[in-house]
Amino acid sequence: MHADLKSPSSTILKRVRETVDANDRWRNQTINLIASENVLSSAARSVLDSDLLHRYAEGHPGGRYYEGTKYVDEIETLTAETMRRIFRAGWADVRPISGTVANEAVFSRIVPQGAPAIAHTVAGGGHISHARIGSLGKRTKNILAWPTLADGYSIDPAAARDLIAKEKPAVVVLGRSLFLFPEPVAELREVCQEAGTRILYDGAHVLGLIAAGTFQDPLREGADALNGSTHKTFFGPQRGVMLSGGEDEAFCKTLDKGVFPGSSSNHHLFSLPSLLVSALEVEAFGKDYATKTIQNAQALGGSLAKRGFTVAMADQGYTLSHQVAVDVSPFGGGKDVSARLCEQDIVCNMNLLPGEPGKMAFNPSGIRLGVQEMTRFGMGADEMDVIAELMHAAVTAARDVRAEVGALRDRFEDVQFGFTPADLL
Q1: Using one digit for the tens of pLDDT, what is the confidence trace for 318-352?
Q2: Of 57, 66, 198, 250, which sits most exposed with the smallest number of CB within 10 A?
Q3: Which residues span the domain enclosing 375?
Q4: Above pLDDT 70, what percent of the chain?
Q5: Is a pLDDT exceeding 80 seen at residue 298?
Q6: Count of alpha carbons within 13 Å of 111, Cβ hemisphere only?
Q7: Of the residues 233, 257, 280, the one at which a domain ends
Q8: Whether residues 159 and 295 fall in one domain
């Protein structure tokens, strides 16, 4: 039977194809500075479309509740082994389908109802899953904010130790969504051990930098668990991962139950092969990529400052990660500036800055920029300077820069730091 070509469904079907193709064309001509995104290599993309799209697997390899999983068992086992090797971890769970789901798994098992916890505020860079309205808030509303130094970004270690000793929280959350510099894990380890407090390091944004050894090493510094997204500086498909040193077997078993049956059932098997390919790429190319990413972020920060933008943490070199934070209130604020940039094919997001009230979330002072995707397309410091100039022209309405943006992207079309489909044969 053939569908009625005049039916509403036929029109919508055509629109699906048109919309997807239009998005592809547009994205390929933009400068994407969204700090939580990246692109896959051709090799990682080549294994996304498989029969695994249709399949289900609950439990662990070798102990599934369904038959027919022998091949996915092999992929999952190799992926977990590779993650353990990359991060020098004794335990890894690659089943979470996002970083937030990984956080949910941890909070659900180690935070008693109503127990105190410490995390960054959203304005201080904390992720929404760390907040009262997010995953942690499902367990407790008693979430205290990290005390900070005068810059508003850096945790005050002495004040933080005093707070932990006084409150004895069930968990402290380090790691952020606006993430410029390493966290004081080592400085807080001893007081957390004395207080019976677990340290969760949310490395979603900097996971690739951690893997490359260019940021910090949370597990060696004292974190009980390292969670992350696998699609930011760790340039894989959109999934999550949980890691731990592995010495505390009971703790790892507790986290395991938080994943299944706690926060997920089937875990989107089709993207596991892509994660494995990407993890092997991080292992092979990650150090060079991470080094260039950080250099590019610092270069972009400097180039923006040179053009009159107020870039955060200028006295400390702007950043040690892939991110740059900019106060654009003189240009109309984050909502207006990010919209104007997007109209000119430069994509970023508005962002609260430290000290801003939560009610400002939809009209904050800042924008957050990430250079990890443009770095993967092969851009360097010279291109960061060009991007800063294009941003300045777009924000000040000096000229329409869409043609210049497109011309720049035309020079950087191929994904670097990865394998090709031929490498899989």
Answers
A1: 999 999 999 999 999 999 999 999 999 999 999 99
A2: 250
A3: 36-43+287-410
A4: 99
A5: yes
A6: 29
A7: 280
A8: no
pLDDT in tens, 369-393: 999 999 999 999 999 999 999 999 9
Burial class (CB in 10 A: 0-12, 13-18, 19+), 189: middle
Tens digits of residue pLDDT in 255-282: 999 998 877 888 999 999 999 999 999 9
The domain that holds 344 is classified in CATH as 3.90.1150.10
The Cα 139–Cα 335 span in angstroms is 32
Model confidence pLDDT, tens digit, residues 211-255: 999 999 999 999 999 999 999 999 999 999 999 998 999 999 999
Residue 197 is which amino acid?
T
Report how far apart the first and last C-alpha atoms of the chain are (Å, whole number): 39
Q: Is residue 10 part of a domain?
A: no
Cα R_g (the chain), whole angstroms: 22
Q: Which of 224, 247, 280 is the last residue of a domain?
A: 280
Torsion of CA 226, 232, 233, 234, to 10 degrees: 60
Task: Output the CA–CA distances (angstroms, integers) from residue 74 to 69, 70, 95, in the order listed.
Answer: 9, 7, 14
Q: Which two tokens stand for residue 313?
A: 């943490």
